Amino acid sequence: MGPLNDNSEQKVTLDRLLLDHPEVSAGVVFGLPCYKVNGVVFATLYGEGVGIKLPEARVRELLEKPGFVPFRPFGRNRGKEFVQINHENPQDYQQNKALFEEAMRYVFWMGTRKNNAFDPSLHCSLARTVPSQWAK
After folding, report:
1. Which residues of 49-67 are buried (b: 16+ CB within 10 A; e: fewer)?
2. Where are the beta strands (DSSP E) in the chain?
3. In the chain, what are the domain boundaries?
């Protein structure tokens, strides 16, 4: 596989897993396939894995576990809020469904917080599942 991400089986698997959520759309960022919530990227395919955006503390926790590495597309660190999940078998990303959903909720929360418009009563399913520690 090339450095960008030409693993169509991986993309097909993630499309099935992530586009099932009505808030999620597929897109492209810096030439890489990605997934967004309200226009904000929460997952990006690159190389042998998928980078996801999560709170910095959660990223540090995941980096201690096997299968997780810093997300460095094009050799550049994407920051403290990104971690890359690597699986040889694209079907194994289904095991990370809860983690992808956590990333969806995080970018949803970040977007609403920036706009001072966070309202858990919104009819978006992501709004009802934001962890309380993020509201601090």
Report:
1. bbbbbbbeebbeebeeeee
2. 24-29, 32-37, 40-46, 49-53, 68-70, 82-86
3. 8-135
CA distance 49 to 63: 14
Task: Give tens-digit pLDDT for 38-63.
Answer: 899 999 999 889 999 999 999 999 99
- Burial class, 70, CB count within 10 angstroms (exposed 0-12 / middle 13-18 / buried 19+): middle
Query: How far is the C-alpha of 124 from the C-alpha of 76, rounded, in Å?
Result: 33
Interior CA angle at 128 toward 124 and 130, to 5°?
A: 115
Per-residue pLDDT at 79: 76
Per the DSSP assignment, residues forming a β-bridge with 44 are: 34, 51
Give the helix ranges, DSSP H, for the chain: 8-18, 56-62, 97-114
pTM of structure: 0.80
Residue 20 buriedness (CB in 10 A; 0-12 / 13-18 / 19+) = exposed
The CATH architecture of the domain made up of 8-135 is: Alpha-Beta Complex (3.90)
Cβ-Cβ contacts under 8 Å for 91 (sequence gap 6 or more): 13
